[in-house]
Amino acid sequence: MAAVNVGASVQSAEFGFLTDESVRKLSVVRIINNNLVDITGRPVCGGLYDPSLGPYHDETCKTCGRGSHHCPGHYGHIDLLMPVYNPLLFKFLHNLLQRICFTCHRLRIEGSRVEMGVKKLELISRGDIAGARRLDESLSSEVAPNLGDEVMSSHECGSSSGHPLEQQQQWTPLQFTEAMKVLRTLLRPPLVERCGNCGAACPRITSPSFGLFCMDGMSSADISANVSPEYSEQRNMFSRNLLPSEVKNHIELFWEKEVQFCSYLGDIQQRGFGNKKAGSSMFFLQVVLVPPIKFRPPTRGGESVRDHPQTVSLNKVLQSNIELLAAYLEKEHSKVVDKWWELQQSINVFFDS
């Protein structure tokens, strides 16, 4: 067999977050059965060893018709009944929620600071690192308070869309480093109790456990000021656990209100790689990608078979999802929350496996 120069054949690599739609397009089968094999030891259809995912042992792949040595492997997917938090971005999401006003759905800091940060990111994305740094110098010296507008106008003739990566396909390491500095400046100021834009009191968002958010820390007076008298039944919403579906609604509204800032936020999270930009959905998972069997092969020893740790973790995800559906059909809210929490924990374990 002739040697292949891999370095010469690979042109580029892109990194990013798959959307639910992208996962379903990659998938060849939906996994719904938590049984792995039947009583005869053969893979169960719709299970984690479904023949469509590739050969389980010495069989022929149901998808491509090749044997175990030549089948590249095929992906499946699990549809989750409720969204869960993306473990890779949970800490960042927590930091973001602590800086968002749940009333006007903008960053709690003054709008002028956000606007200045967006101007810096605009310059950085175009490669003008020096111009972005001059904005800081102009603010500190107060010599040219409108320098940001002047610098922006000097670039407007080159682009009308204002897309972060219109001029180039990906950010350089220097651009990424400078962009992260701007992001830290905007998202790491001292926590404020009132929004700098609408003046509403802001709840405190805590994370008592990885994968769980709680909203508390508001006085009765602050709650009364934020909620209209005719909607007094909503007052309890300011002191309770937050499910991903609720957090997702807040993040989507934030993405609509802070469009420019969030467009750069998505680029920074995937370091400017790729043409498809990460949106607010990157913080949540509604569909789980199931790797091919060849990447999580069972270990055989004599008559015994031991499943791969990823298969064990995925089976726990599947089982938790099934139990969540049962609780949902029973219409018991407390039980639904408990089963969702089990699902979130199983997702966390799967990402660590």
TrEMBL record:
InterPro entries: DNA-dir_RpoC_beta_prime, RNA_pol_Rpb1_1, RNA_pol_Rpb1_clamp_domain. Its EC number is 2.7.7.6. Belongs to the RNA polymerase beta' chain family. GO terms for molecular function: DNA binding; DNA-directed RNA polymerase activity. Residues 9-353 form the RNA polymerase Rpb1 domain. GO terms for biological process: DNA-templated transcription. Keywords: DNA-directed RNA polymerase, Nucleotidyltransferase, Transcription, Transferase. It is an enzyme of class 2 (transferase). This is DNA-directed RNA polymerase. It comes from the Eukaryota. Pfam families: RNA_pol_Rpb1_1. Transmembrane segments: none annotated. The keyword Transcription applies.
